[in-house]
């Protein structure tokens, strides 16, 4: 199901809105509407933390105030994204029913307080949530001002209570069938940890079992599944009453405690909360890392997503809260749109007077006026979104894919191995991604459950754990003409962290890459080796050196130092109609740049920039059947000029553009005359 | 009530004395008296940790040994400061009555052990303390050798037990009257934390409520109030039996877990334990920071205080225990007297043979003789105190006041804001204070409950939280001709951490300073900006930049860098007959030096030195109706010369002095011929 | 009892072997034997973590599989070191009997999991262990393939449960007899901690008693005694059934949580697990520190020991796992033999497929073949061990002794003193040791319970705590002509951490050293002082400066800086027929080098090298009645040449050798023609 946008609404512009904090100030509620309109807002997220107002006593619902708010907004052309209130339990509830409060990994139950900390298993909590979700849906599900469900808020965290652990045992029984199978996969003969009854299984905790990695991995998987199940119950509750409204939930940035890929099938629309920490000076690297996560969000459903939260100025929970420099609000907001967002929204509309987020940036300050930097930046952005509304609905079509598998991440981090001080899986992915970003290559981010057909280039660094038949997908992809880049630390274990026997990369990948990875030398921070290429180029390597033997592959580069000097460090293997590259060591930025520049050219991978873009500038493509949109964002803090090929014009003004000049922090959106 | 000093006793010189550890060694007890006399001691603090000797079994008091000690001391001209023993519970008691042992913030009860860790609420402990305090007072309250009560020892710490939490709820009911009022002030609609019954309120803990800052602040306030109440019960118990004896309790250095300003009305005399960590080389900054805390102690009651503990050599609880270099014992001890102490006392007289403080510096070492560095330093200091006894009773009269409000400190630290990595409230106060210290300006330290009349200059940096009507006191002070220096981060919240609406500084201070503080840019450590003054001088700034708009004030300096270059950074506003300066950014040492040098000159603020003193040297004034005393202390480690204006003579020798020359670490006390 | 080696077996070569993980893979078990033989292995340690296989349900023993394994090994010339399985409890047991799971110092009981974490007091666990140990001994104690008992595995850790605490109280009653005695020794009058009943005593914990150092020390002692008692029960159980088999247990490196010297009388043979972390480049310092610990192991019983575990490549539990560079496996393994090991064994033979140690280096990788670096290194080493088999049984005879007293270490670390940021007792011992190591001086490591007769030189740095009459042994040793080197921080407390009165060094050592140590100046990291010698040489000192006065000694060096410049820093005292040196400050490497070079020459202490060896090269002597063996190991990573005096020939080839040339990392074993 798609978002059904009201007539005349294109890109969404809005904020979390908490009128429940100001019900005793009708003057302020009135002023809010005026300020929203002044800022060109067309939607707000309401009710996220309002449970205590919606159900002040057990079983007593008070929804009239909310109806008045939604109606007033609607009358003023502002649409409502309506939240289910499960993110924060009312105090009367957490005090009365202790089972809804989580237990930590010390098996100590939380006291009441904070938020996002309910037990996902508690039958009582699930029932209370089902009831209020249903009641809200009954009352508001058909209101013309309500356009989307915002399920809960930033699902997060883990509970170790007995109810959760019991559910975990059930999950394991379903997965493994027999204890024999579980014992085999978890290799419990190690240290005499053979389970002889299901009841002997406990979640991994610091003062219990930590060394059984299969247990750890399955506990992580169970946690995701349990949260997805909780969310599914919420979506069922609202869909039962309002089947025509789509649902989303807001994800978080760099959040890998859960596997977000497991949520995608239960959501109609993906949305997320993006909080880069912009500094003064060059913000290129910060931009790369958020570009990657915007791409994750878009890739989950391969369709436009929503930027559900961001801040107009600064957050208040970082060590240091630098204000956004002039132009940065435009650049950062447009980055989201450039990567596929159909909205720019904020946390929050008006600052709370008290409690922990009272100094978090918002559209309206405690001061109350619209003559502030924050407000002016928001207003200007709102105007820009109106001007470029036509991009709404266009999508990103990528010919390159990067494999980011969260279960693989968990496994790498859970295993004691060559560099316990840091394997840097995500950093490594980002290093590969950056090389493509610098050329404006649209990239999908996939995991091991995704399909690979349709791509020209697949990049799969550090694929330690293989699951879901991904090894076969990789073989098929290359056999049918695809180009694959793999690296050290690939194909070591099966989905339960059980090592492949017979040599790495296992599960048939030795054949695909044409190398045998015998062992790994780990380097201390600061230690270096190098790759010497056939043509004499030399790149630095660090952290890990896989010692490999050729089994059919051809050497493209060798180690420059140490006792394995001269041995292969970078190889390629012809396999079927395609090629599989194998990189044995973590390389420097220049290596990735040269490698992908060559591959993009050779494979004619779609990209927005002829060659490298100016430092700190990104170029993104969205497209419809008819046209392409080119989004340029400058994060460098310096004026930058981008040379364009083809005919482009500004979307906002219609002016033709030959050379795009961007100020310190800036953004420009262009459209092609035709595709 | 004042300390009633016996005939012939002027400045006190003595130590904590624990004969209860040596009752089986009469030879040592006898030797103690000889050594005390050799060191020119005239008083000791007795009984601090003697409860297990005083009440070896429940209800059985054994006081005879103590009487013998007190009598023997008295016969030898040594007076007793008698402690109530509540600082350390006997083991039989903590084992029998678990309620007297604290619970930590994890709700886990302490086991027996350590000290200063009783529950301040426990009715049983309060009763046991009341009984033994009363019994001690009955027995010794009229002994001519006893001159002062030493209530407990270094009150400290917090208890989270159910008894304390129940008392906290009662305290809240008294403060707020209704839950509606509490919910409003704590802004509990945020995250649905509305309380619907008093029983739902718990103390803030890591696995419970942390984000409700009003709760956090009130819990801190309650803790102080509960300890003061405990102390008040102790003072009542001893005063009931010995109404003519004054009471003190010994405070700690840099201790802001409680608000010491709340203790002052229940004490006759303020005393404290001062443990600078002197190093080799220049100790100027360490001296500044202890100068400030001596001034806090004197300012609490605006009368001379007592230095109750210090060490002749080094403590044993620091990462590294450097010995006091030659001369430092004199300089450090005289610093206390210079700032208003009528005593120099030590922890402790004789080192314990075992347990955790056996290597803590003391007058008498395990060695036992008087031919040690420690003993000779103490003896020399004792001689000096005898020679300058006439300064006793003279006081410091300040024309400048520095606002140090502990509740404001708590609020700044509790709130998540622009620099969670360090707002540096105390460091900022010390930076302002240092500029005055370098000119020998006597300074009172006041909090928001103090009066401001009588001062020429009031310095109130980072006055984030306003309470007790202090905003009105500030307005009155300036209106009537005073000069006020305020800074960024002022006037953001009311006493319950609820933000002022309508613009900062709130509560009427916008009018007073003539500026509107729109927002704050926080800088990372190492990042800099600057203030450019009208006359071209330039000062570095760091950490925080308030972006302000003039609302009547005049600009004295502007920002030198960044996107707010040229905007006001330092302003002054004429208000009534006075002036209010507003400093928008944290400035460097030169700025404060120049600012206060100018203001001291312009306002003719009393000060001891014409211009700046040599680096690391301080000059302090004490005065009586008739004369002034000038105390010079050199902490630089280098010889230093101080030029004097007026006629001065040494108090110890009577010699006239024109140029004071001080060796590496040194102290010199002068008197004016007349005032 | 000695190890009874089968005919034709000299040095042992083998590994931990866990066939219980592969019982469903007879092909792999078969291949294991082939690979062992290829690697010249003659013994394996079996059954260490096999309890769950040996007793799959309570009371049901299944030993047949083990018999088959032992028999098969034996048939192939491979002997078994048979483990008792107490190191890891089966899950069914820890789930059923919670008392066998430890409690942490927070009094929280562990959940099932991990290993080496049973309660040493639990009567149930002791009984279960006794039963299975007895059953194993009955079944296998007389098997010709079984040559040694491997009691449990790496005993470690502490339990705070009520059973342990009760046992602790009994232990104290036995030690002190009366509470009066205990109160006196622990100096409990400090802070009113006088015990009035035994039940009031609890183990030291973070939220209880920490400051009573006597309690802390006795708890550490009790812990060791309780573990020794547990081990003794295990040895009794196996000896009852198989009295002719010797017992060992495998110690750990740098493990001072227990006092290993207390274990020696209950073991027939000492063995240990040695895991140096070799890096690239010069590994000299790592070699020194493991040389020292090899010497500890040999010194415990003054007879050859066994290297029970080591890794052929790298461990997997360090921050970074660098592979052993070429040659290092030989050098590191031969270092063990050089210092007295009669074996080289590994953890483990074949890598586990899963769980926490699956990436720990092993002889056989998951790959399974013998064409790997790891395997080839092991095979080559096995060949070398065969070639030099004749050294087996030869011993090290030392004329120098270094005092390393674990109780002294505990006391230094437990006491709050001059440098809580680091007293560096072990580092200091190693600094002294290194000077001897560089000359190839054989060194015994002794503690305060050992005898000193027979040595020429005794080195006793930082002998803070005196016990077991060691002060008398030191006096006797010097009086009878020995040379003693002592330092600052010596003779401060008695065995219960109670300070000596009357001056340091106490207990008569003032007389021996001829100095009075008045006080100690502690230096911050980075601060320096120096010793200026009579002849003008100057050495740097750091960390601690004892200020001493001569009481008969003669000054050899004085302080070069600070207020104690010119005061004695290094002295010598003639005492009886010997000499006692006293070093007042922690000195630099050059000082120790010159000091011990002089003393070795003067006293004609046995040593392997004429002068200093090349950097990073060690030379060790083992001897029999007839000959000397000279072991040279190069850890420098650079080629090195050692000049030899006397006639030597290679043990492996019989070639005569005049100049020994060693490659980057290398080892060479020579024998003298005759002694």
Q: How many β-strand runs of chain A?
A: 25
The poorly predicted ranges of chain A are: none
- Rg calculated over all Cα atoms of chain A: 26 Å
How many H/I helical runs of chain A?
16
Largest interface: A-B, 56 and 56 residues
Structural class of chain A: alpha/beta
Instruction: Report the biggest beta sheet of chain A as strand number plus sense, adding barrel if it closes.
Output: 11 strands, mixed
Q: How would you state the average pLDDT of chain A, rounded?
A: 97
Measured as a percent range, the helix fraction of chain A is 25-40%
Family (chains A, B, C): Belongs to the glycosyl hydrolase 42 family.
Protein name (chains A, B, C): Beta-galactosidase
Catalytic activity (chains A, B, C): Hydrolysis of terminal non-reducing beta-D-galactose residues in beta-D-galactosides
Domain Glycoside hydrolase family 42 N-terminal (chains A, B, C): 16-387
Structure summary:
Chain A is of the alpha/beta class and 675 residues long. Helix content of chain A is 30%, strand content 21%.
What does this protein structure show overall?
Three copies of one chain form a homotrimer. With about 675 residues, chain A is an alpha/beta fold. Chain A is about 30% helix and about 20% strand. The first copy, chain A, has 16 helices and 25 strands. In chain A, strands 10, 11, 12, 13, 14, 15, 16, 17, 18, 19 and 20 form an eleven-stranded mixed beta sheet that branches. In chain A, strands 5-4-3-2-1-9 form a six-stranded parallel beta sheet. In chain A, helix 14 links the parallel strand 12 (about 455-460) and strand 13. In chain A, helix 5 runs parallel beside helix 8 and helix 13 (about 425-435) crosses helix 16 (about 590-605). Chain A is globular and about 75 Å long. The two termini of chain A are about 25 Å apart. The mean pLDDT of chain A is about 95. Chains A, B, C: Keywords: Glycosidase, Hydrolase.
